[in-house]
């Protein structure tokens, strides 16, 4: 493949072409792996298998999951492509057949006649990997998730026992309620402007649908739960499937419309609360909670839509900052304040505190300027009690992924947990970093060094109890 034209396929954004299995003997362990952890750390991400026709922002690329399995202080590693019908069709024909979300391609008739995947919108399965209700799922915004086995082999598309209907697109960024075990998610459709909150119980059985009507289909990646509400940002950012099929820029930003914040009652009854403020965009929440009759939302703020069809605009590199928003239901007032001036993304929290008052948030961060493509070389900890932001830098040229808080099974304290993320540092190679959540001064308690690269990716999670 010639990837030289695409900044977001250079360096550690570049794909790898191997599926690998490494035993503990083939991994180099630096420090001490926590002996009381049983489960797996997994991260999904885009990994193009064939020469792309278009690649501006790393939304495209076939899904590949990287996993480190833990048991009694011992570890092993695997990575696998998610075997989607789009990827399998391209492998059958030996070339790129499907476009990107920014520039779609008409599927050749010979492919359709041969029984290949006819949908021009590639289900990449590249955005998140989640373990809930005993099911391991690789997720993407624009379609059904893919069910995986514990060893990362692909079972196939998963429709939650028929709860998802053809055309439903399940979000790749749900939240799990720590009290009920409910998975709070949503579906959107290419053929409708509306939004449907979907709730699945702790066993993964569909429990509730809450419809939300919109005049126009917006780009909504994340949602946040609090005790009584589901909060979403309806930014003036839109995607036109028709423009994408014509080769035109399908991404639309209309800042004069402002951003609306919708608070949806989790009970499914009562009116939605709508708040309005100046236009901004956000990919990710950190956490949210209710206190003193108000709703507090911590999230990563971006000034405007961070992607476009054209290359070299730099919009994807615009600043991302941790903000705290306060919503007053009595007055409908919105207070939106910057918490930190650190460039950050992929914000996370101790999942046991999801929707509750908490102290620490975590995110991948940067303390330096980047060239053609932005990246992150630090893990950050945001102390919402003291206002302090602490960074652990892996090196000026390092690439650090989304940090996940892994609870210490012997403690309820946030600071006693571990912060895991994949890192690639030139000269040091790829490793899984394990930081102490309460100690960002002394660096990783362990590094699990992995032969070869682990490319930059998207979302990661800890799969408690999942073993091979």
Spell out the blueprint of helices and strands.
Blueprint: E1 21-22, E2 28-31, E3 39-43, E4 64-71, E5 74-81, H1 85-93, H2 109-113, E6 128-132, E7 135-139, E8 146-148, E9 154-157, E10 168-170, E11 175-176, E12 183-189, E13 195-200, E14 206-212, E15 224-225, E16 229-234, E17 237-239, H3 241-246, E18 251-253, E19 259-265, E20 273-277, E21 285-291, E22 294-302, E23 320-328, E24 333-338, E25 343-349, E26 360-366, E27 378-383, E28 389-393, E29 399-400, E30 404-406, E31 418-425, E32 429-436, E33 446-450, E34 460-464
Polypeptide structure, described:
The chain is mainly beta and 468 residues long. The protein has one domain (7-464): 7 Propeller (Methylamine Dehydrogenase, Chain H), CATH 2.130.10. 4% of the residues lie in helices and 39% in strands. It has three helices and 34 strands. The strands form eight sheets. Strands 2, 29, 30, 31, 32 and 33 form a six-stranded antiparallel sheet that branches. A five-stranded antiparallel sheet has the order 1-5-4-3-34, with no helix packed on it. The radius of gyration is 21 Å and the shape is globular. The two termini are 34 Å apart.
């Amino acid at each position: 493949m010639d990837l030289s034209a695409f900044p977001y396929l250079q360096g550690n954004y570049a794909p790898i072409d191997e599926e690998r299995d490494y035993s503990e003997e083939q991994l180099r362990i630096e420090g001490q792996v926590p002996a009381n952890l049983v489960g797996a750390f997994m991260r999904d991400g885009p990994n193009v298998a064939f020469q792309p026709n278009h690649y501006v922002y790393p939304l495209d690329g076939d899904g590949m999951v990287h996993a480190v399995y833990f048991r009694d202080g011992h570890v092993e590693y695997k990575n696998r492509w998610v075997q989607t019908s789009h990827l399998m069709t391209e492998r059958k024909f030996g070339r790129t057949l499907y476009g990107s979300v920014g520039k779609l391609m008409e599927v050749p008739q010979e492919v359709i006649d041969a029984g290949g995947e006819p949908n021009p919108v590639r289900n990449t399965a590249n955005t998140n990997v989640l373990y809930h209700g005993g099911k391991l799922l690789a997720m993407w915004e624009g379609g059904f998730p893919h069910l995986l086995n514990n060893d990362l082999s692909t079972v196939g598309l998963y429709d939650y026992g028929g709860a998802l209907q053809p055309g439903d697109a399940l979000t790749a960024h749900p939240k799990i309620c720590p009290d009920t075990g409910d998975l709070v998610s949503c579906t959107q459709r290419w053929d409708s402007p509306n939004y449907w909150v979907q709730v699945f119980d702790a066993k993964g059985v569909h429990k509730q649908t809450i419809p939300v009507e919109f005049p126009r289909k917006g780009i909504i990646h994340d949602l946040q739960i609090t005790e009584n509400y589901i909060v979403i940002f309806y930014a003036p950012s839109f995607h036109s499937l028709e423009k994408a099929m014509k080769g035109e820029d399908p991404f639309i930003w209309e800042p004069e419309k402002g951003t609306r914040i919708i608070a949806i009652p989790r009970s499914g009854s009562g009116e939605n609360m709508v708040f309005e403020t100046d236009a901004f965009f956000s990919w990710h929440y950190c956490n949210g909670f209710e206190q003193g009759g108000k709703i507090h939302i911590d999230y990563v703020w971006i000034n405007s839509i961070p992607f476009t069809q054209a290359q070299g605009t730099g919009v994807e590199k615009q600043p991302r900052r941790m903000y705290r928003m306060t919503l007053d239901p009595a007055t409908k007032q919105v207070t939106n304040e910057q918490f930190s001036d650190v460039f950050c993304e992929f914000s996370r929290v101790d999942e046991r505190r999801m929707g509750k008052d908490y102290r620490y948030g975590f995110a991948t961060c940067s303390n330096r300027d980047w060239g053609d493509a932005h990246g992150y070389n630090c893990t950050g900890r945001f102390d919402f009690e003291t206002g302090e932001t602490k960074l652990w830098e892996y090196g000026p040229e390092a690439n650090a992924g989304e940090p996940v808080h892994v609870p210490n099974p012997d403690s309820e304290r946030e600071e006693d947990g571990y912060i895991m993320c994949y890192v690639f540092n030139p000269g040091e190679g790829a490793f899984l970093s394990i930081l102490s959540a309460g100690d960002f001064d002394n660096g990783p308690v362990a590094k699990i060094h992995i032969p070869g690269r682990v490319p930059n990716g998207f979302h990661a999670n800890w799969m408690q109890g999942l073993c091979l």
